[in-house]
Amino acid sequence: MTEINRRKLFGLGAAGVAAAGAGVLATRSVLEGPPPAAAASTSDPVRFYGEHQAGIVTPAQDRLHFISFDVITKDRAELVDMLQEWTAAAARMTQGKDSGTFGAVGGHPEAPPDDTGEALGLPASGLTLTVGFGPSLFDDRFGLAAKKPAALADLPHFPGDTLRPEISGGDICVQACAHDPQVAVHAVRNLARIGFGKVSARWSQLGFGRTSSTSRAQATPRNLMGFKDGTANVKLEDAAMLRDHVWVAPGDGPDWMAGGSYVVTRKIRMNIETWDRTSLAEQELIFGRDKGVGAPLGKKAEFDEPDFAAKGPDGEPVIAVEAHIKLAHPTTHNGARLLRRGYNFVDGSDGLGRLDAGLFFIAYQRDPRTHFVPIQRELARKDQLNEYIKHVSSGLFACPPGLRDAGDYWGRTLFA
């Protein structure tokens, strides 16, 4: 049993909402084609060009392939050339086309194909590709040290972290989201193929079952603990929230990041078997939400605002002070919000009959120092959920602004 007040376990009516993660934000997506909020089906393409990169405020797709690369070339010009090739391939693939000019079968039969071919005949499936640059890229290899954002400072160690270096960090990340897992994997595979000899894969993560809604048109999903997740996320339609909490503003510094955002990733393994043996009443107290309809304890509907001052018949708070919803709520952190778009993962078992499963947390924000770091510090110190989870990987990347047109490329504002 956790430290949560057990007097509430019996007699406290269940009325709650899904998992409390720090709020999320969204606006219109950026890809060539119809705006994502107006897409007729999950097979449609998402616009590639625009003010911001696609895949941040785009309505969250069902599948993820996230990959982090180490740059192995020492030639700055070669790295820039690769980023230009990546951008051209991404512009094609997000529209449902092959990654190269001649495609999987149109080139010379004695030469390797321009595309790996596993997405032949498949639609675009809402594919988005989002790129970010890690702190390690700004060492002395490419002359970028003076352009490193202060907000890209390495994340601190949080209490309870059991991070594995081999699945953390990296120079460049690519987030591929789509409604078809094969489309997402195809995109990452072809970027890795194009980058051969210039980058090497450091780590990657497959995800399914989005754990956040980033548009009011989407129902709130559930995490692998069975609770609705991302209820408090700010949506695509909330432009003011996005401006204040997600997009780097001119003057935030440096200039090349204006219109971009910072992404934090955390692989959070859940002790599934232990959680499954925990009583429903305790599960709801830990989250501070009802497991069924997803309302905050003491409320009736999913989107009701939690009342942290409400007391039960025993005089104790209806929502415990150490409940996840309370610790992660914007009112606990000077109004700070995150744009969360994480995914569930199941990576087999650990050899002892326990599932290697949990949440691949993804959160975009204007500045990790004022958003993710204080929120996670509070959760790491006090959250009763920590008895059932452990953070095993971590990443931080600066995602530059969107692409203007076909003459632009990922990182142009950085390498110019």
Automatic annotation (TrEMBL):
<protein>
    <recommendedName>
        <fullName>Deferrochelatase</fullName>
        <ecNumber>1.11.1.-</ecNumber>
    </recommendedName>
</protein>
<dbReference type="Pfam" id="PF20628">
    <property type="entry name" value="Dyp_perox_C"/>
</dbReference>
<dbReference type="InterPro" id="IPR011008">
    <property type="entry name" value="Dimeric_a/b-barrel"/>
</dbReference>
<comment type="similarity">
    <text>Belongs to the DyP-type peroxidase family.</text>
</comment>
<keyword id="KW-0408">Iron</keyword>
<keyword id="KW-0349">Heme</keyword>
<dbReference type="InterPro" id="IPR048328">
    <property type="entry name" value="Dyp_perox_C"/>
</dbReference>
<feature type="domain" description="Dyp-type peroxidase C-terminal">
    <location>
        <begin position="220"/>
        <end position="402"/>
    </location>
</feature>
<keyword id="KW-0560">Oxidoreductase</keyword>
<dbReference type="InterPro" id="IPR006313">
    <property type="entry name" value="EfeB/EfeN"/>
</dbReference>
<dbReference type="InterPro" id="IPR048327">
    <property type="entry name" value="Dyp_perox_N"/>
</dbReference>
<feature type="domain" description="Dyp-type peroxidase N-terminal">
    <location>
        <begin position="53"/>
        <end position="208"/>
    </location>
</feature>
<dbReference type="Pfam" id="PF04261">
    <property type="entry name" value="Dyp_perox_N"/>
</dbReference>
<dbReference type="InterPro" id="IPR006311">
    <property type="entry name" value="TAT_signal"/>
</dbReference>
<keyword id="KW-0732">Signal</keyword>
<keyword id="KW-0575">Peroxidase</keyword>
<dbReference type="InterPro" id="IPR006314">
    <property type="entry name" value="Dyp_peroxidase"/>
</dbReference>
<keyword id="KW-0456">Lyase</keyword>
<keyword id="KW-0479">Metal-binding</keyword>
<comment type="function">
    <text>Involved in the recovery of exogenous heme iron. Extracts iron from heme while preserving the protoporphyrin ring intact.</text>
</comment>
